[in-house]
Amino acid sequence: MRQTELVTLNMREFDRLKMVQAIVEMGLKPGRAAERLGLSVRQIERLVIRYREHGPSGVVSGRRGRPGNRKLDDGLSVRALTIIRERYPDFGPALVRDRYAHFDQHQTAD
């Protein structure tokens, strides 16, 4: 007997869950599901495997609750903000980025 678990899904994950369930239970073709969800057939196949192994929680992103890859260290962020506030007290974020790129010849991501 499978234990009941509460899974929180956003709308995209809910749509994926419904498609994966349709593949597993009703025989929907993975190619059709891939078209509807805008994913590759291979990604759909991986979702089906995770669904079979973990149930509905298998369609939830493994990155949920983790910091993004581009997140700066908190100490570095505080230090940068301190320098910016001292040197450019009346500048907004876009102007600081432009000035920094111009004067220091560094490129920052938008």
Automatic annotation (TrEMBL):
InterPro entries in UniProt: Homeodomain-like_sf (IPR009057)
Protein origin, superkingdom: Bacteria
Protein name, as recorded: Winged helix-turn helix
